[in-house]
Amino acid sequence: MARRALPPLKTLRAFEAAARHANFTAAADELSITHSAVSQQIRLLEEFLGRPLFAREARGVVLLPHAREYFTEVQVCLERIASATQAVRTSDAPRVLRVCATPSLAMKWLIPRLSDFQDWEPGVEVQLTTVNRQFIEQSDAGNDVVILRSPLQRADATCVRFMDDHLLPVASPRYIQRHGIRTPQQCLGHPLLHVTGEMDVWPRWFSLAGIEVPAQLPGPVFDHQFLCVQAAMNDLGMALVPWCLVEDDVQGGRLKTLFAQPRLPASGVYALFKPGSPLGTTARRFVDWLSAVAQKEGVGP
Questions:
Q1: 264 φ/ψ angles, rounded to the nearest 5 degrees
Q2: CB count, 10 Å around CB of 265?
Q3: DSSP, res 111
Q4: CB 149 within 8 A of CB 102
Q5: What is the pTM (predicted TM-score) of this model?
Q6: Each residue's pLDDT tens digit, 221-250
């Protein structure tokens, strides 16, 4: 048998983490190594492949087009190795359900509710991973359930819309009190917080409010929704974000809605799973639980 041309496992782990976070520092924190060590492993892998993998930018790194499919395949293989290793280590280990979501959905909605699933299905251990939205459509192969804010179609999979959603403007109670914002028009005189790839949401909201504004409005831009939410919480301005990501913060008094209307409609939140996979029944139970939570909170479709 011919010898397999495999790069060192350390280089693949560093590459997968860096691509998933789009940031070498975040990858280093996850792997408990230094930033320079991540850079070195990426350089070794690029030398092995004979091609660069990332474009360096001021805010982090971006996968080059030819590296995106490689990232997907590497991520799937690493997940399979991890699952196979856990199965071998102990025969009576709980079933491991691999769930993938965007960082914002995972942090602001799923994780705060996940302990309830342990009571719902105590024999299942949820292994949660996050991936940037631009890669999530390519990342479902190595996961049992993928949660995202847009429908995703696969021939062998079922996509369930389990939660309604809309966008509302929020700010910290201190910010609202300090600036006395009482009308949508007054929002234009304050910092509007944006999320990368969603620069049109504020103009669309103002349009619903009957106010004509430019197609793009100035203001700080953040890579993730949860960063935008945190910025609003820390008095940096006003955020227009999905209600599902800020409901807990509003109820906890960390944020306050500026206006109940207008509400900018969103596409909802979806769960993709494969009924015919080895863990198809467990995945179905997890999606049923997602739907039950949404119904209980009054946001079911």
A1: -85, 115
A2: 12
A3: H
A4: yes
A5: 0.65
A6: 998 898 999 999 999 999 999 998 999 999
